[in-house]
Design goal:
Helix 2 crosses helix 5 and helix 5 runs antiparallel to helix 6. By secondary structure, this protein is an alpha+beta fold. It has twelve helices and 18 strands.
Length: about 525
Amino acid sequence: MSDHDKTPRQPSARTWARLGLGALGGLLAGGAALAVAELAAAAVRPQAGPVVAVGAAAIDRTPTAVKDWAIRTFGADDKLVLQLGILAVLTLFALALGAFAVRHRRTGAAGVLAFGVVGAAAALGRPDSTGVTDALPSVLGAIAGAALLYVLVGLLPPARREAPGEQGEQGGGWDRRRFVIAATAAAAASAGAGVLGRALSGAGGREAVASRKNVTLPPPGSRAPAVPRRAQAGVDGVSSFLTPNSDFYRVDTALVVPKVDATTWRLRVHGAGVDRERTLTFDDLLRRELVERDITLTCVSNEVGGPYVGNARWIGVRLADLLEECGVRRPSQGGPADQLVARSVDGMTIGSPVEDVMDGRDAMLALGMNGEPLPFDHGFPVRMLVPGLYGYVSACKWIEEIELTTFDAYDAYWVKRDWAREAPVKTQSRIDTPKPFARPKAGTVMVAGVAWAQHRGIDKVEIRVDDGPWREATLAAEDSRDTWRQWSYAWPATKGGHTLTVRATDRAGEVQTERRTRTVPDGASGWHSVVVTVE
């Protein structure tokens, strides 16, 4: 045998064509699987769809450091990035599976079914799973995708060219028209199913949208004082004292924002030390005395100088009053429960110290935000707030259950992922203007921003230029100790590069620490600085 005979045979153009068409078939099969699953999820519930279910499972299993990085990097778009990433992986998987099915037709189709098993397992494993029906979207989608891939691969040209007179057009052994018709029909049907599924999913939330439109918040029995006229620093570039709903930060794990119908919503209160278990409706809460308060919320994922802090005027029901009516006592008064576990309709659990909830602060079940019913993104119909605590231990959105228990008996969602059980908000401050790397003109430059230490209040803010002495800033009027406080400083800026640093002191006398820490396990700390060049 000659050396030439030993040379491996290179794939022919026909082979590459078969692989390419097989990959196309895989892509169409993957699209069909997702479209059918989307349509089925509209009938079951949107959270049961495979992309959402797998994405939620991925969030639950992602290391804390990676989650923290995603929030810092992508902000409110982190969920969109995750879903796009999942779709990209599925696209590559579908292309590879289609090419593989060219030679292993049945095994390739079985691979699509395996995709369905993964999606079904993810849906059934969610804490908010409603039962075996949650598996249907993934299963039906996988069956449709597997069947389509099997059919399309069967329409591919044979591995060898057949002689004239054998099957197929012009002796080629392949009815090209049948393949094109099948592929086109599959693409059109998938697109139609996907659009219909989206439309039906949207229609499923119409009752919730209508229920929100029909909500009229009664006048609060206890109104918040008017915001002091001088609470705003009056410097361009500083955050608005009250954060508009559309600008308020959103950090949660929900890939699909729950659309809860207020007319069917229920809240169950039960657990250790609850003498009188109760189930309340939305109307029950509206009939109670409502309180109105300005409260600043802070996410524990907020880095030093970060954007995940906002201030709003909330309307709701005093949580302590409701708990006392159920017979709950604070641990300091002999109550058996030291943890209140709030559960959301999407399965999220948030644990709050009972002592803090009932110590007289304005902890509430909020129904309204800045003069309107809660937006869906922020928890409609009801969410929980506890001033002075980071959101992950206090601010349960879409709440549907309150259970009284102990910290020793139960770890809430974030505690299982290495975050602290208790997390009071740390004293922090931020420079809003000038922005990093700004180039202001020499002369008087207004440096301004916000500082917060909820439930303690801000007593002083200081500014340092480079390594110079600390200079006291001018504080804007205080609204309440539960809100942030704006500040400003007229800096006589000289030409050159400078570093501006800010620190705050709270009403308890605690000076904001210089020590830099990351957000895990109980919130970031350190001084915020910006570098500018004065021209």
